[in-house]
Amino acid sequence: MDNKLTTVGLIFGGVSKEHSVSIKSAATIINALRDNFNKNKFEVVSIYIDTKGVWWPSHISEKVLKEGSTFLNDQLASSSKGFTHLPAEAEVVDVWFPVLHGPNGEDGTIQGLFKLTGKPFVGSGILGSALGMDKLAMKAAFEKENLPQVNYCKAYAKDLLDNEKTAYLIQQIESELAYPCFIKPANLGSSVGITKAYTKIELLAGLTLAAQLDQRIIIEKSIKARELECAVLGKSNIAASCVGEIKCNADWYDYDSKYSINSAKILIPAPISEQVSKKVRDLSLLACKAISAEGIARVDFFYEEDTGSILINEINTLPGFTPKSMYPMLWAASGINLSQLVARLIESAKE
Predict the structure, then answer these.
(1) Structure pTM?
(2) Whole-angstrom Cα distance, residue 259 to residue 22?
């Protein structure tokens, strides 16, 4: 009988604005992989990517997981920049487990590198990751499949340098969406760089901020709706979790709300009818199929109670795994605890 442990290459950190969230997610996952349930199944090699893109081996990564990224800044700051090579430990890795949020982590970039190593990895492939990261590309794919979503406009950072093009864009947004509206960089997660505009001045400020973070910008109509979320797991046998709801104490679910204590109330399962719950779960699977997302994903929705409309907001192909993150909480409420969940994710990668 083969009792060989599967060696998991856990990669975290990264150059995106969600660096600190990634460290918290990685700490949660690595603890689950080393607990009593999993210790005889997996061996973990951790690799930390610092804010300059330099890859560090496990003896450094373990310190970062315990002490945070300040350990590296204080002790071992590197003059290097960007990826140069895989640490030697990468040779023993059987399955890659990326715990990277945002650009370079869930946009297909590192998935391409994993493919070159010839080893399986947790989560979506290059296409699903790229479409899931870019909100404009994602919405275009949803539109092609006739999936319901909020009205939106698109903008490009370079056009904001032209007064005439900016004036036309403002006019288009005011005509098609009206106020209030949301302005989002197309390629960031965790609500980084997102603003809500009630006036033309706020709209211009929001566009300016988004343009500093991404070349592509999406502007969405603000609607009165409940925020629902559903988790997806698996490849050949893809499944949807129960549905959860976020009730935010702030005006909307921004970055601080996601990662601050008591800033939002999470209801799992969501207090909705079975009919609405089923529709959300069905739409979650259709949304994943539309962009080729697989393995792991969280699909976010707007539910307009007055009209009964259920609108897809977005897919997150590498959702957070912090103690406050919805993805593991949704599966826990669906009968799969954290230890079982990380094991299932690794098994799905091998398919």
Answers:
(1) 0.89
(2) 12
